[in-house]
Amino acid sequence: MSIESDGPQIEFSSILASSVHEMKNSLSMLINYLDSVIEHFEQDKSSEVKLLSQLQYNAKHVNNNLMQLLALYRLENAMYSLNLGYNPIVELVEDLIAQNKTLMDYKGITLDVDIDNDLYWFFDKDLLGGSLNSIINNSFKYTKDLIRISAYEADGYLNICIEDNGTGYPEHMLQDGKNQGKSISFKTGNTGLGLYFSSMVARCHKNREREGFITLNNSGTYGGGCFCISLP
Amino acid sequence: MAMYDYRGEIIHKRVLVIDDYSEFRYSVKKMLQSFGITDIDDVGDGDEAIEKMALKPYDIILCDYNLGEGKRDGQQILEEAKHRELLLYSSIFIMITAENTMAMVMGAMEYKPDDYLTKPFTKDALKSRIDKIMERKKEFEAIDKAVYHKDFLTAINICNERINNKPKNIFDYLRWKAQLCVMVGDYDEAKKIYEEVLIVRKIPWATLGLGKVLYLKAKFSDAIPLFKELIAENKTLMEAYDWLSKSYEELGESKEAQTVLMNASEISPKAILRQKSLAQIAMKNKDLNVAEKSLKAAVNLGKKSCFKSPTDYTGLANIYISRKRPDKALDILGDSRSTFTNNPEANLQAAVVEGLAYKEMGKPEAAQHALDEATQIFDFIKGSVSAEASMDVAKAFFALGDADKGNKIMENIIKNNHDNEKVIKMAEEVFNGANLHDEGMKIISDTKQEIVKVNNDGVALVQKGRLKDAIEFFEKAAAGLPDNKIINANAAQANIMYMQKYGKSERLMLQTRTYLEQIRKVDPSYAKYQGLLSMYQLLVSKQ
Questions:
Q1: Boundaries of CATH 3.40.50.2300 in chain B?
Q2: Which of B30, B127, B168 sits opposite A118 (nearest CB)?
């Protein structure tokens, strides 16, 4: 029996969107159950339970990548309109923390947040939230036990920085960072997509003649890697 | 260790979870229970969701956007709930999506959820989101409440008070205020706000708002470049297409208007209201292929939408008749009858077009039979039929050579809409289409004059201080012209003036409320209505 192939041409974007939807339903279940299992074993620090948290981290990683792929696809095909709002930064970061609390608690990561309650800026909540989420998830992997999130305004830009006390970004990534993610190498590990996505998000934010950008360096407060996104 | 102490008012909330995956519903219910919420219902599809919402007011609705192939989606549920006023003004509607970049494609401003939440989310994220929306709802409660009661002036006053305090989220209030100003017809103030915001930042909602205001001030050529610019920068900002198309139509460039809507429908094919507009403009352009395609889309989408309407079916049937396929017309009209059972207006429209189809088939008896049914229904429901539907009936009578009946219906439409330029223009077109130009123009001008005279006579009584006579006079006039907003407004005003002078009476208060309600149904943005509403409320609060 052959498969009928003369039906209506389905667009790749809708295949992508519906497959992602299905995959994400499974992933949602996986992640939610893992969350409750890990919470159940909160006091237990045995290696089996540690594996669960590793599992959770990886499930989230797949999830984040799926969302970024879809977002990038839409951005590059002009299928997304920037939803610019004047929003408090604190709220965005609180959401970010809530989304990752179980994992941070389990890994024993201390979070240092330095953001003025009154700091508001023009940005797309969904895009910026997605970018910060992928960056902070990367920090989970490399930090020793500390992550610092800070935000401040300087020279007409909003700067949000995520830094950790790990070993810092390797030299080739700092070089790539200078190219604004245009030539991120995907061979060097799993950070490529998140940074590429973040630089796209930054560039989408324009104000008059200026556009946003990202910077990577290792001179942060704690000596680890420091990622900053700057929006005009 | 209890990580969270979820006491406080969230535990009293009534929650509805809508998702086609039962495991997901289960896991969300678990999360909600951990916040201390006990009143949680869950359903797997849109039909059930609407049934539940119609029976019970929910405080929080968590609704998955994608509920499966061929099913109602989250946006359609939200639209129906808002359209049927099933949501409390304090209700929180959160749309759950699989991706975080689809928000803008979905609906128009008035059918937006309170927030979006991307799958998967942790219970901390859910709690944090609900808390924040509840906080925001509380801050805007007084405004929401006033808007819910269509009391836009009070809402504007609250905005003004808040804006004076220069809050951090001042842009939210400016956006609200500008929208409210548009609703009450204060276009200059709205324009000023949008322009001031645009000086600070070029932000899409402000550009769109400015374009709309220019459109409403009939400055169509000034509005067009703004909408074009928005579309160039935000290909999926669907509202901009609608307004661009409307602007072209006003300028008489209906081919351009059609092209714009065709582009928009390609990007967002599920928007039923746009499909209807596209069909209308395509009909105007005599582009039957496009009209047919979009009406078919509207009929199909309508099966899962509260915006389904019998005119989609009759429109399609009319196309089939002009294509000499009356058999297909009868089929679709049969569909209409089985879709809109117990809807006399729908049956009326179907009967009328059936008459035309039978005429095309060369069956005059069947045609006459259909029209007899139409006449019967029309006499029975007269007064509650929309101008658009009434005109369809009139058109059919003209087409079948019964000009007397047609004229009578047209006269009634004009009486109730003597000040509505759009309806008058449509009426002219109907007369022209029936080759009754001269007779039609005379009917229009005579009827208009008649109503203007009635109104002037009433106003003269008020001016002479004969308030009691004015009240009686307008009472009679309004009874015969239930949809005429000017007559109803003057009737309400006579009552209010009388009560301001001689004190409140229960009968007059009730009657005034009825007049106001009539105007609200026809045109809640009518400038005079807002003023009358404030005067009425002042009376209510007086001892």
A1: 9-148
A2: B168
> From its phi and psi, is residue B383 left (phi > 0), alpha (psi between -120 and 50) or beta?
left
Closest to B430 in 3D by CA, of B383, B461, B387: B387
Alpha-carbon distance of A114 to A122, in angstroms, equals 19
Q: Which residues are bridge partners to A85 per DSSP? A: A123
Residues 53-92, chain B, touching A (beta carbon < 8 A) = 66
Q: What is the mean pLDDT of residues B392-396?
A: 86
CA atoms of B348 and B372, how far apart (whole Å): 10
> What is the ipTM, given to two decimal places?
0.80
Q: Which of B24, B99, B36, B100 is nearest to B62 (CA)?
A: B24
Question: B48: closest CA among B31, B29, B63?
Answer: B63
Does CATH number 3.40.50.720 belong to domain A83-232? no
Work out the burial of residue A38: count CB atoms within 10 Å of its CB; fewer than 13 is exposed, 13-18 middle, 19 or more buried: buried
Q: Which residue of A has its CA nearest to B29?
A: A32
In this prediction, residue B380 carries a pLDDT of 83
pLDDT tens for B197-241 read 999 998 999 999 999 999 998 899 999 999 999 999 888 888 999
Which of the four pLDDT bands, split at 50, 70 and 90, describes residue B8? very low
Comparing CB atoms, the residue among B66, B123, B128 nearest residue A95 is B128
Q: How many CA atoms lie within 13 A of A156 on its CB side?
A: 11
pLDDT of residue B293: 95
Query: What is the spatial distance between Cα B206 and Cα B23, in angstroms, rounded to a whole number?
Result: 42
In chain A, which residue's Cα lies nearest the Cα of B167? A118
pLDDT > 70: what percent of chain B?
96
Q: For residues B155 and B151, give the distance between their C-alpha atoms in angstroms, rounded to a whole number.
A: 7
Q: Is the pLDDT of residue B505 over 70?
A: yes
Contact between residue B74 and residue B63 where contact means Cβ atoms under 8 Å apart? yes
Check: CB of residue B213 under 8 Å from CB of residue B227.
no
Tokens representing A18?
């519906």
Distance (Å) from the alpha carbon of A4 to chain B's nearest alpha carbon = 19
Of A126, A26, A13, A21, nearest to B67 (Cα)?
Answer: A21
Residues A196, A205: Cα–Cα separation, whole Å: 15
| CA B224 to chain centroid | 24
Q: Which CATH superfamily is domain B9-148 in?
A: Response regulator (3.40.50.2300)
pLDDT in tens, B98-150: 776 665 455 555 688 988 888 888 888 899 899 989 888 889 989 988 888 87
Asked whether residue A134 carries a pLDDT value surpassing 80, the answer given is: yes
Distance CA A75, CA A71 (A): 6
H or E segment at B222? Answer: helix B220-233
Rounded Cα–Cα distance for residues B378 and A110 (Å): 74
**Distance in angstroms (rounded) separating the CA atoms of residues B245 and B256:** 7
Sorted by where each begins, the domain ranges of chain A are 8-80, 83-232
The stretch A183-195 carries a mean pLDDT of 61
Chain A neighbors of B169, CB-CB under 8 A: 86, 88, 120
Other beta carbons less than 10 A from residue B482's beta carbon: 16
What's the pLDDT at B32? 94
Cross-chain CB nearest to A24 (options B119, B171, B203): B119
Determine the pLDDT at residue A4.
Answer: 45
The CA distance from A51 to A55, in Å, is 6
CA distance B54 to B46: 12
| B102 or B21, greater pLDDT | B21
B-chain residues near A35 (CB < 8 A): 122-123
Q: What is the mean pLDDT of chain B?
A: 88
Q: Is B405 helix (H, G, I), strand (E, B) or coil?
A: helix
pLDDT cut 90: percent of chain B above it: 51
Cβ-Cβ contacts under 8 Å for B214 (sequence gap 6 or more): B191, B220, B222, B223, B226
pLDDT of A188 over the 60 cut: no
